[in-house]
Design a protein that fits this description.
Belongs to the short-chain dehydrogenases/reductases (SDR) family. By secondary structure, the chain is α/β, with parallel strands linked by helices. Helices cover about 45% and strands about 15% of the residues. Bound molecules: NADP nicotinamide-adenine-dinucleotide phosphate.
Length: about 220
């Protein structure tokens, strides 16, 4: 399938796996739009894509921000949902209802509202790819909050794949991937987490943003 001239919007395209996806589809001559909340991050990302994309300031928790992005774009062929904020990590007993609510708003509701806002401008037989997360398909203690958010997206996507056909709706469910999402961790703790995850995986390594971009 050629992506040449296809208009692709990537929410969360200014960092991590969204950015790797933007770089990949830009190399395939797509017309790429990356969206996120911060201009500085968009600027660095646009440099990394060598000017072969446009940046849009969008906060997907804000319907007005999504409506103005849809108006500016006019039409798109494909939508990639790769953003998230306020992930609810940690033991079940330590995740308050407020923390879970913020995590749901920062991913499930964001995906929901973005798709609703973009549907009128999305090609009827185009595609939607949603990044979920391994916590939704493996029982890992300490990830009940991630499982709740990402599991809800997975189930929602299965229903939407039928309801919105011929639009193709898919999820891509990454395991642990070294992205700037972990920049806030002390370096040693981060290295320990990735090394331990790699040891426990049959392939002996964690994934990269480029692996996920290829799947998207
Ligand atoms: N990294 C992992 O190990 C891992 C594992 C499994 C699943 N995932 C999932 O994979 C996806 C990508 O993860 P990543 O690690 O590549 O993320 P990341 O590096 O933290 O990047 C997140 C992106 O989302 C944007 N964003 C955050 N909140 C937003 C909002 N309210 N509105 C619009 N844009 C927003 C950020 O830009 P601004 O901050 O400028 O808005 C940034 O571009 C996420 O859905 C994450 O949950 C990640």
């Amino acid at each position: 399938m050629s992506l040449s001239q296809q208009r692709i919007l990537i929410l969360g395209g200014s960092n991590g796996m969204g950015l790797a996806t933007a770089q990949r589809v830009a190399r395939a001559s797509a017309e790429v739009f990356i969206a996120g909340r911060t201009q500085a991050r968009l600027d660095v990302a646009l440099d990394a894509i060598a000017g072969r994309a446009e940046g849009l300031i969008v906060d997907f928790t804000d319907p007005a921000s999504l409506a103005s992005a849809a108006e500016r774009l006019g039409r798109i062929d494909h939508l990639v949902l790769a953003a998230s904020s306020n992930a609810a990590w940690g033991p079940f007993g330590e995740i308050s209802a407020d923390t879970l609510r913020r995590a749901l708003e920062g991913k499930l509701l964001g995906y929901w509202q973005t798709l609703q806002a973009m549907l009128p401008i999305l090609r009827r037989d185009g595609s939607v790819a949603m990044l979920t997360g391994a916590a939704s398909r493996t029982a890992m203690p300490g990830t009940s909050g991630l499982a709740a958010v990402n599991g809800a997206i997975t189930q929602m996507a299965m229903t939407l794949a039928k309801e919105l056909a011929p639009l193709r709706v898919n999820v891509v469910s990454p395991g642990l991937v070294d992205t700037p999402a972990y920049d806030g961790m002390p370096e040693e703790a981060k290295r320990g987490m990735f090394e331990s995850a790699a040891r426990n995986l049959p392939v002996g390594c964690t994934g990269t943003s480029e692996d996920v971009a290829a799947a998207v």
